[in-house]
Amino acid sequence: MPDSSLLEVDEEAIAHYRAEGWARLGTTISEDKLAALRTRADEIMLGKVSYPALFFQLDAESGNYDELSRGKGYQGASLNYRKIEKLEHDPLFRELIETPRFGDIAHAVLGPTIQLYRAVLFSKSAAGGTYLPWHQDCGTFWGITKDPQLQIWTALDDAPEEAGCVEVIPRTHLGGIATPLGGVIPDYVAGPANAESRAIKIPARAGESLLIHNYVWHRSRINTTGKPRRALTICLMDGETKCRRKKGPRQFLRLFNDETR
Question: Angle, nearest 10°, between helix axes 8-20 and 100-110?
Answer without folding.
Answer: 50
